[in-house]
Amino acid sequence: MDLKQNDTTRQNDHTRYYKEVQELGNSYASLGDYDHARRCYEKAASLGPDEPNPYIGLGVVALENDHLEDANIAFRVARRLAPDSSRAYAGLAVVAQKRKDYQRAFDMYLKSLELDTDNLSALLGLFQTSCQMGSFAKVIHYLEIYLNSHPDDGSVTFSLAALHMKEGRFEKAATLLSDLLSLEPENKDAADLLEEVQHYLQRTKQAAD
Predict the structure, then answer these.
(1) Cα(209)–Cα(202) distance, rounded to whole angstroms?
(2) At what angle do helices 34-47 and 53-64 cross, to 10 degrees?
(3) Is the pTM of the predicted complex or chain greater than 0.85?
(4) pLDDT below 70 — which residues of the chain?
(5) How far apart are CA 47 and CA 164, in angstroms?
(6) Ordered structural domains, the chain, with CATH
(7) pLDDT in tens, 105-155
(8) CA 135 from chain center: how many Å?
(9) DSSP sequence for 27-38
(10) Buried b / exposed e across 33-70, counting CB within 10 Å, b at 16+?
(11) How far is CA 8 from the centre of its chain?
């Protein structure tokens, strides 16, 4: 019984140490101290070899240092350890986007959002990639899903309005921009885009009359 208790205690201590090192790495990364963050993530990976989070951390650090192949390897390991990790797929998408492989980036962002529709970094990455590819239908779908849960997110509302405008849905764009300006009356970008949309709608109405 005592041996089992000792084993459990050691395991609990090991798990707690892993979590502390992982969280310390996250803290260093948030402060931009990527060298110390990398060391913590490497230690966390040795303490928890089956945990995906240290490898996601290593991937983020590698991206910040523009080491794309190192980032790619780290995110692939994280995906192998956790096939349902939205963050691993988002990381692979960022690598592909930086390499200008927009089709792969698009696919990886989509997979990330299928796993977690609230992954804002994947959502905005999909928006950027869609603009580069000129393909907007799928990103509009995920932007709308996200806004259903986060109706006050101004950046996503603006992005969705801009996409509706590109697709020729000016009335939808006008409604979204009006809603955004009611929340953020000082948002000059939204005001300028709404003026442009209203000008188009007015011209269309005059032409119809």
Answers:
(1) 11
(2) 160
(3) no
(4) 1-12, 209
(5) 48
(6) 1-83 (1.25.40.10)
(7) 999 999 999 999 999 999 989 989 988 888 888 899 999 999 999 999 999
(8) 18
(9) HHHHTT-HHHHH
(10) ebeebbbbbbbbbebbeebbbbbbbbbbbbbeeeeeeb
(11) 37
